[in-house]
């Protein structure tokens, strides 16, 4: 049988090398190796070391009035010395506020992402273990994708009006309910779980980022927003890799079986990752409700949402406006088509990789086949995704 752990280790080592090459540590320990940034820094340092023209000509005096020239020079020197000190103090305070904000965000966001990644490797495998056909499983998958598409169109606006922190807590509750439905070998209940999962996915990919932007604006650290997104993306990649490994262990922790003979309620086996995800979601909701401040969508000068005193823009009107803007802009339309085609291919891959690898393994091993380490395979996928994102930065 293929050694999936060995493949994971090799790919992980490659990813570590690529990530290090793309990081600032490479420039620190290996300076001047084809780095354009290093050359730019050298030019900047030379420019900063040049003496000020004001100091070179003695404050601009002609020599006829030395006293005036001395006064102007002293004033200019004092102003120039005080300004950097004030700026440095302001930057230091902003850095402290940003560090505190980022910690609060990451502990909640990464728990939410962790709960989502835990489920990825075993959704198809669980439905297959319940004995459903590939067609039935496809219906469940499409229901989840369709739910995300529909609710994703307006859930962001609802969060802006109702409170983003409140909707993060709602996300945790909805996704937790989705995880609990996985224990039932009942197609209707599983369908409800997929619909709930689609709603939760829409919240995950909209409300968290909206809260982060609003929190940065309130704290006056909008210049640090790019760093926050970079940290979240890097943390998300690491969490995805760890989630696959933990999910693999959870899936092998206990035997997959009904609680009572003939009962439709199951425990153990492929349900393990969903139970771990349930715990992560509970922690996510509790932390969001306790350490996050509430924030809302931007208001107009008159204090009303979106600057409207009498009425709020309806979800239908917003969708029409977005559609019109997309049609009028060839760049936006092209970007949307390209993204849709890419995402469509990814959804096909998400659905097909489990049965495809299972079929190949069964053909190879025959009666000796006992299952695949889907969590390890999933972690390998995530390592490759992380490496691919950093290759462009090398």
SSE map:
Layout: H1 4-22, H2 24-29, H3 36-49, H4 53-56, H5 66-119, H6 123-129, H7 134-152, H8 155-162, H9 164-181, H10 187-204, H11 207-219, H12 225-251, E1 257-258, E2 266-267, H13 272-291, H14 315-328, H15 330-365, H16 374-391
Antiparallel strand pairs: 1-2
Helix pairs in contact: 1-16, 5-11, 5-12, 5-13, 7-10, 8-9, 9-10, 9-11, 9-13, 12-13, 12-16, 14-15
Summarize model confidence as the mean pLDDT: 84
Calculate Rg over CA atoms.
Answer: 28 Å
The helical percent reads over 70%
Q: Could you give the count of β-strands? A: 2
Low-confidence stretches: 34-39, 52-69, 300-312
Helix segment tally: 16
Task: Tell me what portion of residues adopts beta-strand conformation.
Answer: under 5%
Question: Shape, please?
Answer: globular
Largest sheet: 2 strands, antiparallel
**Helix-and-strand structural type:** mainly alpha
The order of strands across the largest sheet is 1-2
Distance between the termini: 35 Å
- Give the ordered list of helices and strands: HHHHHHHHHHHHEEHHHH
């Amino acid at each position: 049988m293929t050694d999936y752990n060995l493949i994971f280790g090799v790919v992980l080592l490659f990813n570590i090398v690529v990530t290090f090459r793309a990081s600032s540590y490479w420039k620190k320990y290996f300076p001047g190796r084809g780095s354009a940034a290093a050359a730019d820094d050298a030019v900047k340092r030379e420019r900063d070391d040049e003496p000020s023209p004001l100091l070179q000509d003695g404050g601009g005096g002609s020599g006829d009035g030395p006293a005036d020239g001395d006064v102007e020079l002293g004033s200019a020197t004092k102003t120039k010395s005080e300004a950097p000190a004030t700026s440095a103090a302001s930057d230091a305070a902003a850095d402290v506020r940003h560090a505190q904000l980022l910690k609060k965000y990451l502990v909640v966001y990464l728990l939410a992402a962790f709960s989502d990644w835990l489920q990825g490797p075993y959704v198809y495998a669980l439905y297959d273990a319940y004995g459903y056909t590939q067609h039935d499983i496809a219906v469940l998958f499409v229901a989840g994708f369709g739910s995300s598409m529909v609710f994703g169109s307006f859930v962001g606006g609802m969060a802006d009006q109702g409170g983003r922190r409140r909707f993060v807590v709602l996300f945790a509750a909805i996704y937790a309910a989705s995880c609990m439905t996985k224990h039932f070998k009942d197609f209707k209940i599983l369908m409800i779980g997929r619909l709930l999962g689609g709603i939760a996915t829409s919240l995950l990919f909209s409300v968290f980022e909206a809260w982060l932007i609003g929190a940065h604006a309130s704290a006056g650290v909008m210049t640090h927003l790019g760093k926050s997104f970079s940290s979240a993306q890097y943390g998300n990649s690491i969490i995805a890799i760890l989630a696959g490994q933990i999910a693999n262990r959870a899936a092998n922790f206990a035997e997959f079986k009904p609680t009572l003979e003939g009962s439709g309620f199951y425990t153990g086996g492929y349900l393990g990752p969903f139970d771990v995800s349930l715990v992560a979601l509970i922690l996510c909701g509790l932390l969001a409700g306790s350490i996050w401040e509430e924030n809302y969508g931007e208001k107009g000068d008159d204090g009303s949402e979106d600057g409207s005193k009498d009425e709020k823009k309806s979800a239908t009107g917003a969708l029409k406006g977005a559609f019109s803007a997309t049609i009028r802009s060839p760049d936006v339309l092209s970007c949307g088509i390209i993204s849709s085609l890419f995402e469509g291919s990814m959804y096909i891959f998400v659905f097909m990789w489990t049965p495809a690898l299972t079929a190949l393994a069964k053909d190879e091993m025959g009666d000796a086949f006992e299952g695949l380490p889907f969590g390890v395979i999933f972690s390998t996928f995530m390592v490759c995704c992380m490496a691919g994102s950093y290759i462009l930065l090398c």
